[in-house]
Amino acid sequence: MSQPQELREEHEDPASVLRELLEKIVDGLGLDVDVRIEESDGTLTGCVEGEDVGLFIGHRGQTIDAVQHLAQRIVFKGPPTPPTHGSRDARVVIDADGYRERRAETLRSIALDAAEESLRSGQAIELDPMPAFERRIVHEYLRERGGVETHSEGEEPERYLVVEPSEA
After folding, report:
1. Domain range for 45
2. What is the 3-state secondary structure of the chain?
3. Residues 115-130: tens digit of each pLDDT
4. Total structural domains in the chain?
5. How confident is the model at residue 82, as a pLDDT?
6. Which of 38, 59, 62, 135 is the most buried (most CB within 10 A)?
7. How confident is the model at residue 141, as a pLDDT?
């Protein structure tokens, strides 16, 4: 038996798939929250807002990171691909009450401290392992700051960033 055309189209829409996924997850966790979906510049963002989203975020963001990883693969049936003209694929970001921006601020502070320590000591500074999207925040922030270089070492999930003085 085939599905009506409207249902098939609704379930193929990435924003609808993401909304349905997030609603199932927060219902399963017993959270009383609102789910909002935003689309902008090749990014599909699922926002969870409400009381006590700590369970959704998890210790050190492990739960929200896992949800983001799964959402990317469920919504677009595989790893992210760079957006191209006419491409349906986008990057999926999951946020909860502004957690991502607060985490980015923390990462920038850690990056600044590591850069200052590296310049003071003249030595390479290794940061704790972090997911690729967090390493990208640090790489970009320190590239704009200047004076230091960054690169990643190790294997996932223990891949980490190294900050060292620029040779130039």
Report:
1. 5-97
2. CCCCHHHHHHHHCHHHHHHHHHHHHHHHCCCCEEEEEEEECCEEEEEEEECCCHHHHCHHHHHHHHHHHHHHHHHHCCCCCCCCCCCCCCEEEEEECCHHHHHHHHHHHHHHHHHHHHHHHCCCEECCCCCHHHHHHHHHHHHHHCCEEEEEECCCCCCEEEEEECCC
3. 999 999 999 999 999 9
4. 2
5. 53
6. 135
7. 97
